[in-house]
Amino acid sequence: METYVQTVEISMLRHVPELIAWGIGLVLAIIMLRRGGVKAEKLLLAGCSLMFVAPLSSLLMNNWLSQLALEQDMSYIDMMRSPAWIVLSIVIGVLSLAGLVCLIWAFLSRFKARKPAGAA
Amino acid sequence: MPYLGFPVEVQSQEAGGGGMMGILEYLMVLVASTPALALWIAVIIYGAVKLHRGGGRAERFLIAGGSIKLIGNLLIIPTVFLAPWLFHQDYSTDYVSTVHTGLTIFRNVISMAGIICLIYAFWVKFNKRNSEPMVSLPDN
């Protein structure tokens, strides 16, 4: 049990910086939307949400699989080779990719905005 | 000792590598990090072009964020290389696992700084848009 707690703690420590960063992004995106944000800010919000959910799911998946490995007396390597692990990894990968696409789109649409020709 | 998310060494040991990674594993790490490296290089180039065309604080933060994320991604390579080397030097699994976890956390903190810079760049651009009337390009 002690080793399981140790594994969970280390797994959490690894994901904490990423979660903090995307959490800050999420809060700022909500503030921008409330201050009259448009499409770019909506995309930023979607991107930050997906990027926040992906490491969180990875963390939960790691913890769940560690527990399952302990209960079924299987090695973690055997667990990683199971179809459940592969499917969940693909789902998390797709979430991250979707988040990245949203963020790239948001940044491009915000940084493409330009002043009208007549403006000083 | 529990398995602490450290697949590279374990896989190579299972493959009969005696704890050391082969050339193929090194190449796989490099190939796996290539898309992310290409993305951050593209972000830096885009930011530099925008800065050259009269950009300001937002573009500087975009370049800073892209550079920090690039450094964070480049750190994956020594992180992966260091662990098998430590095993080869007969360090205990506990020690190697601690070093690997420490490096991963350090890399994630760098990555966090990069993300915050990028989001701040977006924030600056948004505030600039609110203070000056701007027109968005049509989205085709």
Task: Note the topology.
The complex is a heterodimer of chains A (120) and B (140).
Chain A: H1 2-34, H2 39-71, H3 76-80, H4 83-112
Chain B: H1 7-14, H2 23-52, H3 57-74, H4 76-88, H5 93-131
Helix pairs in contact in B: 2-3, 2-4, 3-5, 4-5
3D architecture notes:
The complex is a heterodimer of chains A (120) and B (140). With 120 residues, chain A is mainly alpha-helical. Chain A has one domain (2-112). Chain A has 4 helices and no strands. In chain A, helix 1 (2-34) packs antiparallel against helix 2 (39-71) and helix 2 runs antiparallel to helix 4 (83-112). Chain B has 140 residues and is mainly α. Chain B is built from 5 helices and no strands. Chain B has helices at 7-14, 23-52, 57-74, 76-88, 93-131. In chain B, helix 2 packs antiparallel against helix 3. Classes of the chains: A mainly alpha (120), B mainly alpha (140). At the A-B interface, helix 1, helix 2, helix 3 and helix 4 of A face helix 1, helix 2, helix 3 and helix 5 of B.
Could you tell me the radius of gyration of chain B in angstroms?
Answer: 20 Å
Q: Bin the helical content of chain B.
A: over 70%
Number of strands of chain B: 0
Helix content percent band of chain A: over 70%
Strand content of chain B: under 5%
Regions of chain B with pLDDT < 50 over 5+ consecutive residues?
Answer: 1-20
- The helix count of chain B comes to 5
Strand content of chain A: under 5%
Assembly type: heterodimer
Low-pLDDT regions of chain A: 116-120
- The shape of chain A, in one word, is elongated
* Rounded Rg of chain A: 19 Å
Number of domains of chain A: 1
The rounded distance between the terminal residues' Cα atoms of chain B is 56 Å
Mean pLDDT of chain A: 82
Shape of chain B: elongated
The biggest beta sheet of chain A is recorded as:
none
Features:
heterodimer; A: 120 residues; mainly alpha; 4 helices; elongated; B: 140 residues; 5 helices; 0% strand; disordered N terminus
